[in-house]
Design goal:
One of its GO terms (molecular function) is histone H3K79 methyltransferase activity. The chain is mostly beta strands. Helices cover about 10% and strands about 35% of the residues. The strands form two sheets. It has a four-stranded antiparallel β-sheet with strand order 1-2-5-8, with no helix packed on it.
Length: about 110
């Protein structure tokens, strides 16, 4: 990961993962716009050919028709108390059984 940024060109977007919290967006020769990287540090980027995204010293030039920064969530949801009880019931967990939370949630 060069300069805290990993990027991969996909067919319809550029995937970017970064440890940086902000980016600069240069569009059509105008003054750059300062923006926040999504909290996960992962997003898809598309932009017109006259647009460039700059993060941590790396520059990504637009190669699409529209500007979009689409955040990517790395979690697949939280388990509610009701869902956990349903899981425990289905597994047949009894009162004296041991349950270990492996801490794989987002909190």
């Amino acid at each position: 990961m060069e300069d805290g940024v990993f990027a991969m060109d996909l067919v319809d977007a550029t995937y970017i993962a970064t440890t940086h919290t902000h980016y600069w967006l240069h569009s059509n020769g105008s003054k750059p716009t300062y923006g926040e990287v999504p909290r996960s540090g992962h997003f898809l980027f598309t932009a017109p050919h006259d647009t460039m995204l700059e993060i941590g010293g790396q520059k990504f030039h637009g190669r699409h028709d529209t500007l979009k920064l689409h955040p990517i969530r790395l979690t697949y949801g939280e388990t509610t108390s009701e869902q956990l009880q349903d899981i425990l019931d289905r597994l047949g967990v009894k009162e004296n059984d041991v349950f270990m939370d492996l801490g794989s949630g987002i909190g």
